[in-house]
């Protein structure tokens, strides 16, 4: 079985509106979240799709989905996310196990709600890689030189760009293995590891690379929304 978890628990602080999560900002004629959700619903390859949102926005999220994509409303469940990203993912796993009878072979595809330009090819490649390897991360090769500074003032090192990649989402996993890996983290590890793929790497588990796309942008700042508007018009 294959499941999708749309992680929509972010805030609007960096978008200049702390009272409105950024996934609910409009992109064109509908919220960013709806653009993203439509890609996963239209893919037609999921046994369940879940949106994880701030607890105070659950009803608003349901209303937004019913208004902007009523044809998919029956396919999508909405529940509260967690305090941190990995807590949100654990909420999704528990939901799919308890409500959708997910088994040991089930795959979970996790995706940022504010990456509305994800393609069907990326989604399908994630599923294939998760089935083959147990875990995968969507990435694009780094195009800029990456500079490391341990003190924030002086350069510590400049890694070889040819072996560096920029992470995107989806990140996809065998659901049972993901749950076991996240449950194995100590409180100290959980406090610093906010990325599920990092947890796999920490435990010495392999994570396959899936080729992303430069268009699969994350909308975080107001200038990102302006770029997304231009992309949508194009």
Automatic annotation (TrEMBL):
It comes from the Bacteria. GO terms for biological process: cell wall organization; isoprenoid biosynthetic process; teichoic acid biosynthetic process. It catalyses: D-ribitol 5-phosphate + CTP + H(+) = CDP-L-ribitol + diphosphate. Its EC number is 2.7.7.40. The keyword Cell wall biogenesis/degradation applies. One of its GO terms (molecular function) is 2-C-methyl-D-erythritol 4-phosphate cytidylyltransferase activity. It is an enzyme of class 2 (transferase). Transmembrane segments: none annotated. PROSITE patterns: ISPD. Pfam families: IspD. CTP binds at residues 7-10, 82-88. Keywords: Cell wall biogenesis/degradation, Nucleotidyltransferase, Teichoic acid biosynthesis, Transferase. Belongs to the IspD/TarI cytidylyltransferase family. TarI subfamily. NCBIfam families: PRK00155.1-3. Catalyzes the transfer of the cytidylyl group of CTP to D-ribitol 5-phosphate. This is Ribitol-5-phosphate cytidylyltransferase. The lineage of its organism: Bacteria, Bacillati, Actinomycetota, Coriobacteriia, Eggerthellales. The gene is tarI.
């Amino acid at each position: 079985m294959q499941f999708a978890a749309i992680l929509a628990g972010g805030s609007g602080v960096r978008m200049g509106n702390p009272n409105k999560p950024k996934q609910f900002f409009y992109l064109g004629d509908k919220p960013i979240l709806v653009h993203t959700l439509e890609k996963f619903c239209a893919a037609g390859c999921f046994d369940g799709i879940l949106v994880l949102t701030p607890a105070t926005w659950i009803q608003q999220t349901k209303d937004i989905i019913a208004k902007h994509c009523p044809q998919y409303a029956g396919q999508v469940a909405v529940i509260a996310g967690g305090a941190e990203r990995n807590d949100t993912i654990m909420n999704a796993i528990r939901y799919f196990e308890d409500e959708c009878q997910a088994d040991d072979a089930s795959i979970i595809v996790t995706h940022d709600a504010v990456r509305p330009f994800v393609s069907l090819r990326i989604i399908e490649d994630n599923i294939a890689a998760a089935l083959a390897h147990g875990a995968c991360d969507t990435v694009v090769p780094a195009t800029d030189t990456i500079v490391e500074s341990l003190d924030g003032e002086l350069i510590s090192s400049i890694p070889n760009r040819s072996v560096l990649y920029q992470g995107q989402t989806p990140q996809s996993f065998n659901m049972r293995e993901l749950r076991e890996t996240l449950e194995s983290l100590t409180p100290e590890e959980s406090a610093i590891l906010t990325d599920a793929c990092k947890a796999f790497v920490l435990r010495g588990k392999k994570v396959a690379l899936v080729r992303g796309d430069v268009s699969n942008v994350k909308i975080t700042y107001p200038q990102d929304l302006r770029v997304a508007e231009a992309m949508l018009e194009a």
